[in-house]
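Q&A log
Question type: sequence-to-structure
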Amino acid sequence: MGRNNERNIKKHNDKLHKEQDKAKKAAMARKEKLKQIVKQFNTNKPEDTTN
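Response status: OK
Response body:
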């Protein structure tokens, strides 16, 4: 009983792709959240940055 039949290969690949999609979505969500944080920080930062 290995992964060497069509049904098991398909099941394995589906599971693998599902995990990869989940990781990709999480990475995109982190990037989007970081963009929002940076944007908010930049809008709240005073324009005069000279010492």
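Response note: Residues 3 and 11 are 9 Å apart (CA to CA).
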